[in-house]
Amino acid sequence: MNDSAEKEVLLVVSKLKNYIRARAGMNTAGNVAPVVSDLVRTLCDEAIERARKDGRKTVKDRDFMLPGGGE
User: Do 12 and 43 form a contact (C-beta atoms < 8 A)?
Assistant: First the structure.
């Protein structure tokens, strides 16, 4: 993976900000999106590994696990 893909924001920032405002009435700092993107990358990397271990070339919903081991 190239460096630009690793630093790219992987979500719609306005949607993230709207969600936080609607859910809690809070604002969202400008440095939140890169952190959330890093979390998404980690979840995707783990899902990719699960699919690979199952011998698949398709990542499925079941390959994603929520933090703490739940689905």
Answer: no
Strands (E), the chain: none
- Alpha carbon 24 to chain centroid distance? 21
Q: What is the per-residue pLDDT across 23-69, written as a single tens digit (0 to 9) for each?
A: 999 999 999 999 999 999 999 999 999 999 999 999 999 999 877 66
At residue 52, the pLDDT reads: 98
Closest CA to 43 of 11, 66, 59, 9: 66
Q: Cβ(43)–Cβ(66) under 8 Å?
A: no
Please give the single-letter amino acid code of residue 28: T
Q: Which residue has the tokens 């990358």?
A: 41
Measure the CA–CA gap between 56 and 22, rounded to whole angstroms. 38
